[in-house]
Amino acid sequence: GGGGGGGLELWGNQVLTLPLSVFFSLSPYLFPSFFPSLYLPLHFTLSLSLPSPFSLSPSPPFSLLFSLSPSDLNAKGAWSQGYTGRGVVVTILDDGIEKDHPDLATNYDPEASYDVNDGDSDPQPRYTQRNENRHGTRCAGEVAAAANNNVCGVGVAYNTKIGGVRMLDGEVTDMVEAHSLSLNSQHIHIYSASWGPEDDGKTVDGPAKLAKEAFLRGVTEGRGGLGSIFVWASGNGGREKDSCNCDGYTNSIYTLSISSTTQYGMVPWYSEACSSTLATTFSSGNPNEKQIVTTDLRQKCTDSHTGTSASAPLAAGIIALALEANMNLTWRDMQHLVVRTSHPAHLSTDDWSTNGVGRRVSHSYGYGLLDAGAMVALAQNWTSVGPQHQCVLTMLSEPRDISSRLLFSKSLDACWGKPEYVSSLEHVQARLTLSYNHRGNLAILLISPLGTRSTLLAPRYSHTHTSTVEIQRKPHQPHTVSVR
């Protein structure tokens, strides 16, 4: 996986005898429309058990960047309000981008580009007979392919400046990741990544020390203190019953985790369900369903970009439109806008539920399909949220043996009377250290004071080995934790 330099995959049973500690990091991100104010005392339960005015004329057959209908992401709704991504800079963290592609050259930004693999400023991909390094170029076109040039199509934010960081075509170390995540953070607004730990149904991995520091510095110092915006694909391990909860990149509170839906609004076969998923865009599905049209290597076009790899750049483009509407948005403001304006209509899955404040949410889709028009409309007059507070509390400080199930509750005061007091809730992170001899049989749930249940870890039966596990999760609503 990603953090330690092992293999990365492009989105293209344990006895609990070691000390078990649970910590909640509560952040007052002021989500008044989604989360109620927290009234003390909080009561958390931990359960463990085993078991448009624009005339666009791209070349045929590419009617638009998506061979899916762009109206379903409401890009035209943003364009009709005059927003095309102008003044916003996006970079693609990947295997490079073809900077001289006729659909990208106009918007290419060398200041948002670098070759970390070779240590130079040119992000041009390494060409091979099989065109393996096409991934980044395809992602870039989704964001910023130029309009009205009779080439491939048009990007969601077709006036956005686009760069690329070539960092996947070599050993992906902690230093490589950190360098990429922190590149020119006063110039780049949005970083889009469509990669992560291997989708094998058993890997638990995430950013290591330097990459974690890069994320933290990005959100605290990037964009003049407003915070870098990190958009991440949720992963393609659905066939292996993988869980993006075990991916420390898409599961970070500092990233916007984006999943996929098919042309017909179904869960794709490759999709991973997890509580950290925030929203969804379109991508590929079954062979008879349309895929994503975008730029390709050797100055060509493709109509077969697939997976959550294709979903994250679409989200990055929509976020660029919202940022043009209000350049003072913080990284947390953008999470608020995504949650407020995403909608579940026409997305089919059996895991939709209604949370404690009446908002529909799904582990497959997050809060639903992104809506570019609604995002830019809300962004224009958005009042920024207050500063982030983090309250860390211990639920279990002594070792606890678990035979088949452990359920425990504790009232929390959210650091009442202290500077870090949390008055309203944005994220909950549950941190557990445990040992069990069949890790894949574990399930962890978090149950909110209002009864919303979030699966922080689903069973992954590809896990067969004994290990000690440290788990840190990011549900997007106030929760109670349950582990099985």
CA-atom Rg in angstroms? 21 Å
Q: What's the total count of β strands?
A: 22
Strand order in space, largest sheet: 5-6-4-7-9-10-11
Number of domains: 2
What is the succession of H and E elements?
EEEHEEHEHEEHEEEEEHHEEHEEEEEEE
Report the helical percentage.
Answer: 10-25%
Taking pLDDT < 50 over at least 5 consecutive residues as the criterion, the unreliable ranges are: 1-71, 464-484
Distance between the termini: 25 Å
Say what the CATH topology of the largest domain is: Rossmann fold
Largest sheet: 7 strands, parallel
Beta-strand residue fraction: 15-25%
CATH architecture of the largest domain: 3-Layer(aba) Sandwich
Question: Count the helices. How many?
Answer: 7
Identify the CATH homologous superfamily of the largest domain.
Peptidase S8/S53 domain
